């Protein structure tokens, strides 16, 4: 049995966002219980040269919607990067999930022979659809999910590995 491009992308992104949303729910509960300022978490970074939590979530959503759209050969929806609260980040995730659910699996699967071109550091880089999905889009998505989790964990939000992985 083979795995389709759709199966290797959209359901993976949807599960990641379900888990990310749960992690952000725990962050909101931590804010309410601890008295920490919400902005402290939303603006927190792992290191001075890394993006803050809000940007990590924005990039995770951009990676997922960009991947699905590029594989399907459709326009990538553009979202303003203006979220400053956990509630707004949750709304962005919900918009991304709605978009992902709207993408026709047949279009994604038909994109197997598509060449994906991105500009990284100003230089164009070309990928086969498979290389793009497996070596760029999915690792990028998980990097930003992991970094979001790590920022929250480093700032006292009580999270465990199963919060990241989700329920089996």
TrEMBL record:
Q: Which Pfam families match?
A: DUF1993
Q: What is the lineage of its organism?
A: Bacteria, Pseudomonadati, Pseudomonadota, Betaproteobacteria, Burkholderiales
Recorded protein name is: DUF1993 domain-containing protein
Output the InterPro entries linked to this UniProt entry.
DinB/YfiT-like (IPR034660), DUF1993 (IPR018531)
